[in-house]
Structure formats: C-alpha cells, structure tokens
C-alpha cells in the first residue's frame, strides 16, 4: 500500500499543534511493539502498535487502534498532544468527561428515584388508555 492512511493536511495540522505545545520530534522516544486484541493473526504478527514517550514531561502513550503503523503513529502523537494540553490547562479533558458521563448513566438509581420513575410510567399508561375510543375493549 503506497498511499498513507493519514492525509498530508492532517499531518501538517498535527505538526503545527505539536510545535505550539512545545513538543519536538527529538524529545520523543518511539517504539513499535506487537499489537494485541481484535484483528486476528495480522495484528498479532506485526509490530504496528506505537509506544511514545515524551522525555521532558514523562508522558507515555501506547496506541494500537488500527492495523496500520503510520496511522497509529499519527493517533499516538495526537493523544500525546491531548494529554499535554489537559495537563497545561488544568481542565478535564473531553475524553475524561465522556467517561464520567457514561459512568453516571450506568449508575443504579436510588429506590426513591426508581419509585418516582415507575409512578410516572403508570400515569403515562393511564393517559394512553384514556385516549382510546370507548367500547373497543368491552
């Protein structure tokens, strides 16, 4: 496959973002390791998973989301930028917020909340039965 899975414009935008954050290529330690997970035999045989370490900050990123090494290199650098931005700005990252939102959604309801919800469902059911034409069920 001659064509890169990541477009040149995306690469340029990532390079500009890295420069703005103060990340330079010589400061990065990059290793290619065997992937794991979905993808079958191809993923387990090739070293397409990318490990990045930024020496000045000590941040480490491991990315093996796709089967393509070049695409994983791009994604690992993007993740490194996201983490560094979150650290610099002191704001919780969008990814962390999404994880917290899912956690809240999965949390069990309290007994009172559950009773209130079921009561509202019963009322809604009554409304629907009253909407029917009279004499259909008799």
Strand-and-helix sequence, N→C? HEHEEHHH
What is the number of beta strands?
A: 3
Give the helix proportion (percent range).
Answer: 40-55%
Distance between the termini: 71 Å
Name the shape in a single word: elongated
Content of β-strand: 5-15%
- CATH architecture descriptor text of the largest domain: 2-Layer Sandwich
Low-confidence stretches: none
CATH class of the largest domain: Alpha Beta
**In CATH terms, what is the fold-level topology of the largest domain?**
Double Stranded RNA Binding Domain
Instruction: State the strand order across the main sheet.
Output: 1-2-3
Q: Sheet bearing the most strands, described?
A: 3 strands, antiparallel
Taking all Cα atoms into account, the compactness measure Rg is: 25 Å
Give the averaged pLDDT, no decimals.
86
- Structure class: alpha+beta
Overall structural domain count: 2
Query: Total number of helical segments?
Result: 5
Structure description:
The chain is of the alpha+beta class and 138 residues long. It folds into 2 domains: 84 residues, Double Stranded RNA Binding Domain (2-Layer Sandwich); 33 residues. It is built from 5 helices and 3 strands. It has a 3-stranded antiparallel beta sheet with strand order 1-2-3, covered by helices on one side. Strand 2 and strand 3 form a beta hairpin.
């Amino acid at each position: 496959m001659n064509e890169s899975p990541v477009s040149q414009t995306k690469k340029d935008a990532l390079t500009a973002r890295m420069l703005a954050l103060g990340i330079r290529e010589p400061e990065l330690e990059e290793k290619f390791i065997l992937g794991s997970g979905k993808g079958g035999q191809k993923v387990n045989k090739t070293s397409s998973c990318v490990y990045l370490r930024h020496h000045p900050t000590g941040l480490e990123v491991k990315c093996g989301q796709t089967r393509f090494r070049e695409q994983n290199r791009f994604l690992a650098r993007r993740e490194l930028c996201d983490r560094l931005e979150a650290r610099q700005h002191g704001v919780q990252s969008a990814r962390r917020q999404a994880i917290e939102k899912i956690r809240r959604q999965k949390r069990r309801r309290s007994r009172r909340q559950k009773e209130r919800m079921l009561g509202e469902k019963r009322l809604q059911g009554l409304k629907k039965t009253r909407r029917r034409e009279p004499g259909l069920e008799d």
